[in-house]
Design brief:
The protein has 209 residues and is α+β, with helices and mostly antiparallel strands. It has a single domain, classed as Glutaredoxin. The chain is built from 9 helices and 5 strands, in the order αββαβααααααββα. The protein has a 5-stranded mixed sheet. β4 and β5 form a beta hairpin. α1 packs antiparallel against α2 and α3 crosses α8. The radius of gyration is 16 Å and the shape is globular.
Length: 209
């Protein structure tokens, strides 16, 4: 699938799912004293920051994933890219589980590897009655060394609190759906294809000059 088609698929999914997005995350309480996560990649030479609030089970997030990956690769020297959890549990039964897996992998230095694996294998685990079994397979594949620790962290209150802290921060920003992007602190209208995504980043870099 080429990049243009991926963009079209994302746009279609956004359009179909849009009416569902006006739903606040539900399920476990977001009350927490933990600080929001700080998962950041890129060298940031131009001091431009792109933030995504995402749900690992969200189909639109899955469709946007290759576009985001391409943007980060193209501009990795110039920008910072940050990902934060925003599982929409009212819509996606395994959304929080996906966030737990990514945060557990992070405890062993494999956040981005697990992040990518979750999106790239989304169709395999999204409706699973035992997603942890699949997440353990992905964790091994991406190089998580201590599987007992991974499972303990996955089930821990500390990891759950991190997810809640991200949710709380997103709710303060008025986020109701995913993916939601912020570029230089301003909410971004989701680009419809790769060229449009590249353009908004290029414009943000140019504005720093």
């Amino acid at each position: 699938m080429n990049k243009q088609v991926v963009g079209i698929v994302a746009a279609v999914i956004v359009g179909i799912a849009g009416f569902l997005w006006l739903t606040k995350p539900s399920g476990q309480s977001t009350a927490t004293s933990a600080k929001p996560t700080s998962h950041i990649e890129g060298a940031g030479a131009k001091n431009v920051t792109l933030v995504e609030y995402g749900d690992y089970q969200c189909p639109a997030c899955g469709a946007y994933h290759p576009l985001v990956k391409a943007v980060v690769e193209k501009f990795k020297a110039d920008i910072f890219f940050q990902f934060r959890n925003f599982p929409l549990e009212a819509l996606h039964q395994n959304a929080r589980a996906g966030s737990r897996a990514a945060e557990a992998a992070n405890k062993q230095g494999k956040f981005w590897e697990m992040h990518d694996s979750l999106y790239e294998n989304q169709k395999s685990w999204e409706t699973s009655s035992d997603p942890l079994a699949l997440f353990k397979v992905y964790a091994k594949q991406v190089g998580v060394a201590d599987m007992a620790k991974f499972e303990t962290d996955y089930k821990s209150k500390a990891v759950n609190d991190l997810i809640n802290a991200d949710l709380k921060e997103g709710q303060k920003l008025g986020i109701t759906g995913t993916p939601t992007f912020f570029l230089e602190g301003k909410k971004l209208e989701n680009p419809r294809d790769q060229a449009a995504f590249n353009k908004v980043i290029e414009d943000a870099i140019a504005a720093k000059k």
